[in-house]
Description:
It is a single chain. With 416 residues, this protein is an alpha/beta fold. The chain folds into two domains: 10-75 and 316-415, Aspartate Aminotransferase, domain 1 (Alpha-Beta Complex), CATH 3.90.1150.10; 78-313, Aspartate Aminotransferase, domain 2, CATH 3.40.640.10. Helices cover 39% and strands 15% of the residues. It has helices at residues 10-19, 78-90, 101-112, 125-140, 180-190, 217-228, 247-252, 278-281, 283-286, 298-313, 316-338, 362-377, 395-415, and strands spanning 45-49, 52-55, 60-63, 118-122, 144-148, 172-174, 194-199, 231-236, 258-261, 272-276, 342-347, 350-355, 379-380, 387-388. The strands form three sheets. A seven-stranded mixed beta sheet has the order 4-10-9-8-7-5-6, sandwiched between helices. Strands 1-2-3-13 form a four-stranded mixed beta sheet. The protein is globular and about 65 Å long.
Amino acid sequence: xxxxxxxxxxxxxxxxxxxxxxxxxxxxxxxxxxxxxxxxxxxxxxxxxxxxxxxxxxxxxxxxxxxxxxxxxxxxxxxxxxxxxxxxxxxxxxxxxxxxxxxxxxxxxxxxxxxxxxxxxxxxxxxxxxxxxxxxxxxxxxxxxxxxxxxxxxxxxxxxxxxxxxxxxxxxxxxxxxxxxxxxxxxxxxxxxxxxxxxxxxxxxxxxxxxxxxxxxxxxxxxxxxxxxxxxxxxxxxxxxxxxxxxxxxxxxxxxxxxxxxxxxxxxxxxxxxxxxxxxxxxxxxxxxxxxxxxxxxxxxxxxxxxxxxxxxxxxxxxxxxxxxxxxxxxxxxxxxxxxxxxxxxxxxxxxxxxxxxxxxxxxxxxxxxxxxxxxxxxxxxxxxxxxxxxxxxxxxxxxxxxxxxxxxxxxxxxx
Length: 416
């Protein structure tokens, strides 16, 4: 049983020790060492290009986290960055009033996203999901919300409730993906006062295997929303501009009332959007207030317009689907061969290797050993989050990754 040599992450650890005196927890959220494998993963990165990252200790990785989703093309994508730099240098990007790029991007969304008639632009996914709920409540004059998926860090939906009064989330109810019975039961009790059903149209729950929609699931949710007069919101922060140009709603053929987009739309630049049917979106004109100093900044609008141009021009998503499907087929062959309790779920643009739970808890050790071997070999996956394929992952990159995955499965097989 050959174990891959541990990485030298001395500088990362030193920076983290310093950070703990300056920032609560050292680093925030899903970037904490505990969200990977402590002592094995780098904590601070130095640079990235294409699909590769280099940490502060000089270790190089082929990356499959893609910045947790925004990087659809690649790191330091020259054409996108050049467009942004040109805007900053020649026109500027932060002004008292709005620049024309708002209109250009909103118009583009109406052309490619089925639900899009009007749009409001923000900065983060949490901004946009929260705005969608406010719009739905203002439009319907109802209170309650049914949710399925991760919708950010704001008071109404965050998992950790520290610092949040119970009244802020007491009218929000959760149902599981593909469990139409749970939603039906909730709506039977609360449907007449339900403002919104917000869900991820493709199932990517935190820390658990991914799910495609069961036959009729999305259609049934759509019918339930119509029956009770609730606004159906698709959280397409991860799936938009990745599953298809029109998002999962285009791919699966079910159109919501409102859609939340972000991440891949601008290849890493901070922008999100609530887009949807005009009669619902118009609630934002006079019934509620949404504003921020930085929402109208045009650098991210320019990045989004250029990213979308490249996605369409270069058939990026078709390329990702083709590569990803071959890649997943090869991984599945290995899982069948080595029989270590691993499971592969997801679809070509976004997938996840997990390990089946067992009575002994051995799956936790297998997971840790598998992902430890991968990071030591120079392949950046997360044990607790699904992976992505980007445009800049080459066939050579994927073949190298397959070899490392097989060696890691072999290691786990021999050890257990």
